[in-house]
Structures are given as structure tokens and as C-alpha cells.
Amino acid sequence: MIPLSPLAALDPALVSQQLDLATAAIGEDNPDLDVSRRGSVYDILAYYHAVLNAQLLTNVNDYLDARSLLVLSQSTNPDLADPALVDDVVSNFGVTRQPGAAAAGSVAIVVSSSSTLTLPAGAQFQAGGLTFITDQVYTAKVDPTQIHGPGDRLLTPLAAPGGQWRFTVNVVATAVGAAGNLPASTVLTPVVPPANFVRSYAAGSFGGGVDTETNTQLLNRLAEGVACKAPSNRVNFAALLRNTPAFSAFVAQSVVGAGDVEQLRDKHSILPLSLGGKVDWYVRTQAALAGVVLTRTATCLSVAAGSSVWQFSVGRDDAPGFYELRHISRANADGDNFPLLSDVRAVDLLGLDWAPDVANPKEGAYSRFQTAIVQFTDSATPVAGLAPGATASYTCTAVGQPLIGPIQDTLASSADGRSRAADVLVKAPVPCFVTVIFTLYSPTPVAASQLTAMQSALAAAAQNTGFTGQLYASALQAALAPLLTQGQYAGAMNLSGSLRRPDGSRASLSSTDVLTVPDDPANMVSPRTVQFYLDLADVVITVSTVAAP
Amino acid sequence: MSTYDVAAFDELDRGLAVADLLSQNAQLSAADLITGTPKLAQRFLLILLMEQGSQTYDPAAGCNFLVDMRRGLWRTTADVLQSFHYSLLDVQRQLVAVQTAADPPEERYAAATVLSVTLAGDVVSLNLMLTTQAGTQHVFTATVHVHAGMN
Fold it and tell me: Is the entire prediction scored with pTM above 0.80?
């Protein structure tokens, strides 16, 4: 059943028009009756008739605006149509709206005492104007032998002066939407701080947050509902993903196959020819970057005065398709950020029932078969008594896109699911990490919540451009405009991007007009393979208070 | 031009009463028509007893007389008088705003006076005197039941 529009949310102009019509009609039939505001008919009868009739007309118009695909396709703004009616129309073609989902993640809480403490279910944390709540009761304890159930958490000592301990709890956003996919290390503020509280932050990237699909998005993928769900042309690939519930919330996809210059895997012959039969499937599974916190055992390679060089490896199953490693830290420390010395990628195709044809690490970059060996400098571990060959535990955040591994395993590699006509390799898109800097001119101080909303709007705009290869400053300005209050103006935007090619090299982009992905098919870099990523922290807004004219 | 209005108030309807509004036209029943001074009195009461903001699409209509009652500001007759006189400014403004020179003088507002206020249990009775620009006066009683759940 289509719900009626709330009486308090009608178009005032329509109510006024209906009121005029009602009083005019009553007045025409009763010339001596006072139908103006001087009489009671106006307030007691005509006003309520006007409101109810406006409600009726609103719903009739809603229906007329969404009654068929023809009407919806001719609409300049399908999002104004009633979502329930649009759902009914597209259901005739086997398409259903993607529901929104709340983001979830893990919060690290640092305390200054090793005393046992309990956090209730529903304990609230806030970040970026969003609220997250714990999913159950958590009890943090310092004794590992007392850890029994999922709600028991270990207080891990940190290498901090005065003594600090850290534990983690799982939280879920109270509202659905991709805005809840916080980057790792985002500060979260508890509404009621636990005892001995020092700080809390996202232990890894939050994930799973999905916006409810809009009418426009729903109509844009209508073809996917009708199309065959099989690895064939681009629409078929998209339909295949949409039809698989676990992957259906993907943001964008690009299929590079026979006849595409970025396809290198079909040129493995001794002849300089494209032989076809290979498909690189670039899938952006969510708008924001996701981070997986890895705990690895590293080996000391060398020791110098005040620092040491360490090495660890990342296997193909640790963080399939990851882009880069960030925030390398001692496992028992909080706040280290050791610099990478090297990051050597490889591919691991051993022990598979079926393996795609991947000739080198560049071809396998950002796929689920990618591996890495990284070296970094530890400037915090005391070097006295430390010798090469020593081992220690470190954590790092592998940043990338989730679900690359499961998509490959389910749709491209499995014995029953994979295409017998093509060799399909699923990859996270080639990343271009964007930074946006601009000045906000405002006659009054700007609240932090408004700045956060602006950062979110810009990130959403930048991260939903699809495989277009261009990020326009004007598109970002358009996303920003509705959030500006009276007297506020945004200055020119400085856009810069760091594009990590599949071979590990970097390309720097910058502009105040448009970031354009270079056409470099020999390195599998083109608008068909690259996606823009913009973290909230990479939207730098300088507020300049200007005197009101 | 003289026009009539439909009598909106009946006795003790939903806690509100205008005791003698219709008695001025004794030959008419509650469902009948009113004109002249009673019509103006009815308009006066409609505005006085309409909570400002209750009409979503005309939020300035009405006054805060009953809002004060809901807030529990009425403890003594002086409180009721104070609330009435504050609200009277809004009522007057709205009455005058819709008057035209073509209206009969007995339907045009000139002044309103509280003759008495009585508190009896949960009933507040205001004895009001309305004066029109024709010089006619009209005395009527507005009764408000103060109890939980009143609407």
C-alpha cells in the first residue's frame, strides 16, 4: 500500500490554491454566506478540506509521475517520484531496489588502567555526525585466561609512558548509509566515556554501509534486470553482480576484454596479436576505501643506530586486491606509523584448481592472487641487543576494496560458476587517491558539523563518478552548493591525485579544473580502469571569516 | 455588505462553550445562521480559542491563550486575565486585518473587555463584553474546561 503524504508535509502553495478554490465554490453556491476569514466556514470547513484535498492531489500526482517506465524515463528528476510506486514498476522487469545497510566496524579503546571494565550493549560513540552503538555487552579484562565468550575482550598493554591498555569492541551505525564507512583511525568520541578513558578510534575501516538505492540509480540499472546474468558483455557482467546478493551493492564496474587496448593478458603469444579470451573485470564494490587490519610477524633484516629494518609478507588470502599498506605499527603500540622502504608485489597461483593466465605481478595487481613483501624502518623498538633474524609482531592496515576475493572465487574461478569461454580476472580498480583543498569564505564561524557534512558530500561526489576518467571541480562545487548557508562562498578547489599504477609506480595529477586520468594502456591505466578515492580526511577546508557586506 | 455565518458553537461542545452566543437569536437553533454582533463574537472566540501554530499552513492564525493553559500557567484569576490580555493583542490584530470598510459596523471590532473571571474546579469562565464600531455591545461567556486530555 502506498502511504499517503503526511498532512504536515504538503506543498503550501497547493494548500493555498485548494483553499481559494473551496471558498470560491462555497461562496458561489451561497452568496450571502461569509466564506472569508471573518466567518467560521473558512477555518472550520474550508481549511481542512483544502489540506485533505491537497493531500489527495499530491498522491494522485505522485502516482501519475511514476505510473510507467515511459513517464519515469521522461522525468527530469525521477527521484521525486514515489519510491514505492517505482518499486512496483521496475519489479515487472525483475529488478528490486537495493536496500540500505548500516556500517559496522571495530573501535579501539585506550584506557589508563588495567582494571576490568564493562561496556553496556548500546553504548554510543560518535564520529562525523554519525552515531555508532555497541552490538552487545563487552567486558575488558587483563587476564587472557578469563577470556571465554565473544563479549570478553583482552586489555592489551601498550608501550606508552604511565601505562595504557587497549581493547576493541564491535559497533554498528544507527543509520543506514555509506557515510558510516569510516576510514581506519578515525577518532570516535564516546557519549559516556568508560572509566579511565584515554581515547578511542576506528581500529580498522568500517564497512558494510550502503545507501538505499535512489530512483535514478534503480532506473539506470534497469537493463541489468532484463539482461542475461552471465559473463558476456558489460551489461551482462553488471547483471551477474547485481543478481548475486552478496555483491549486489557494488558501485561501478568495468569490463576490459577482447579489443580493449588495456587488455594485456591476451597478448601472451609470441606473435604481437591480441588473441582474445581474457577479461579483466574491475569492480568497485563500495564507494569508500576499506581497510583490513593485519597482524604479521616481521623479521629484522638489519640494525642501525636508533632504528632497524624489518620485513614481512602479505599472502593472497590476507587482504585480496589491496592497494597499499598504511599505519605500520608495533602490535603492542598505539600511534606508530613506520615508513615503508619497499613494497614488492607478486602473484601466487599455486595450489588452485583453476588459475587465470597471469604472467607477471603487473597483470595480477589488485587481484585476489596478489601478494607482497614489504620492508619498513622501525624507529621505536630499542636496538640494544637486537640482531638480524629477530622476529616481532606488527600491525598494518591494508587499504583497498572488499569482496574482490569472493567475487573471483564465486563468479570467475569456481568450477560451476566460471565462464568456459573466457579467463576472467577480478580486480579492484586502479586507484587514484585524491586530495581536495579549498577555502570556505563565511561571515560567521563554521560549525564542525557543517564542515563534516561538506567533506562527506564532496567524498560522495568524487567517489561516484563511475569509470569516466575525469573528476571535475565543478561537480564538486555543485555537490557543495546546497550545503552553503547565506553569505558563504567556496573558493577555487585545488585537486590533486596520486595514481598508483599496477606496476607500483606513481603518477601525480593536479588541477583546479579537472583531474584527468592519463591514457596509458600499456600500464593498464585508462578511464576504463581507474577510480577516484577521496577520504574525508583528504578534504581540507580552510575557513576564512569575512566581514558581512 | 451584510453576510451571515454558520453558528459554530453549541453548548459545552468538547469542553468549550459560549453560553449565550445563540441566545441573542433565541429563535434560531444551534445549526442556524448568525449575523451582526454574534457573528463578530464567534469570530473573536474562534481566534481566542485557536492555538497559534495549530494550522500548519497558516501558523500565525490564533493566539497563545490556550497554550498558556496547557503550560499550566493558570493558577489564579489574575493569571487568566494576564494570559487573556496578552492574547488579545493577537486576536485584535487578526480581527482588524480581515475587516473592510464595506463590512457593517456591527460586524467590525472596536474593543473587548473581561467583565469577570471565575474558577470553579476545573472550569474557567470568562464573562466578556465585545464592543463593535456601531457602538453595540455584546456580553457572552467563554467557558474552558481545564483537564488532562483536553483538545
Answer: no
